[in-house]
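Morning run. Coffee first, then this:
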Amino acid sequence: MTGASIATVSRVLNCPDYQCQDKNLTERIRQAARELHYVPDQNARQLKMGGRGSAPKQKPYKIDILLARFHSLEEDPFFAEMYRYIETEFYQGNCIPGQLLHVPDISILGSESRVRADGMLVLGKCPQAVADVILRKYRGVVAIDRNPMDYRMDEITCNGAQAAMMAVEYLLELGHTSIAYVGDCTMEARYGGYYECLLNHKISMIYEYIVSTNQTREEGYQAFHRLEALHRPPTAVFCANDVTALGFLQAMKDANKRRKKQVYRPAVISIDDIEEAVRFSPMLTTIRIPKGDMAHLAVLTLKDRLQGGHQECVRMELPCHLIVRESAGMNLT
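And here it is:
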C-alpha cells in the first residue's frame, strides 16, 4: 500500500519517534495502518521469537479519541506527538483506533443510541457537559492532560502548576525578577503556578507582563512585539507551551535580524518539550512532559477498566523535568 519495506513499516509502527527520510512516507504508513485497523498477530510474533504461538486470538478493543481543546492534531504538536505514542501502544496492546472526535461531535454522539467503540481517550481538558455525555456512552474513558479534571473518569496527568513553578524557579535562579507570562489565563493551572511562584518569592506581579493568548504560535509571535514595546520590558518570559514559545522566539529573531544591534533578547522558557524544541535555533529550554509514559499508562488503564480490573476512578500524576538548552541563557543587552 505504501511502497515501504516490511522493516520500515515495523520501525514506524513500533517506534513513535522514528521518522523516515521522506516524512510523507511515515504518515502514509500510519494512515494505512489506521485504514486497515491493523493489529499485530501475537501468535506470529511469538513464532518469530521462537515461541509456540498458541495464545487464543482476542478481539481487539476499538478506542475513540477526543481532541478536547483543538480542532486538529496539526494545531497542537504536543498532542500530535502524544497521538503517535498512543497509536504505538494500540499496536502493541491489541487495540485499534476508532473515530477522531472533536467537542462539537459529542452533541451528535449524545443523540445516538450506542457508540461503536469500546472506550475513549480524551486529549486535553474538556467541558463538564461533554464529560457527562462520554461517561454515559462509553464503557471506559481515560483523560490525558497537563492538569487533572475531577470528572469521575480515570486520568493520567502532569501537574501544570508544578511545571510552571519549576520553570519560573529556574528563571529566578538565573537572576531574573521581571518575568512575563504568555499563555491562557482562564482557569489555567500554569498561570496559577506562575503567580504562586512569584508570590512565594515576594515578587509583585506586573500586569502589563501578562499576555493572555490561546497558546498558538501566531499569538506567541505577537506577544514578543507587545512586550518589547513596553517602557521596561521583562528580562525573562515564561510561555505556557512550546508552540507559543517558538512563535515568540521567531519574532525575536526576525526583529533582531533587521537591526544592527540586538536590542531585546529576553530569556525564554516553556512547557512540553516537543520535537521542534531541540531543532529550533536557539534551542528551547523547557519542562519535559513524559508523553510516552502517559500514553502507555493511559492505554493500560483503559484496557484494565474495560476488562473489569478496577471500578474506582484512578488518577496517576507523572513528574516533569527541566531541560536546559539555549533560550534561557542569553546575555541581555
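The longest strand covers residues 95-102. Good start to the day.
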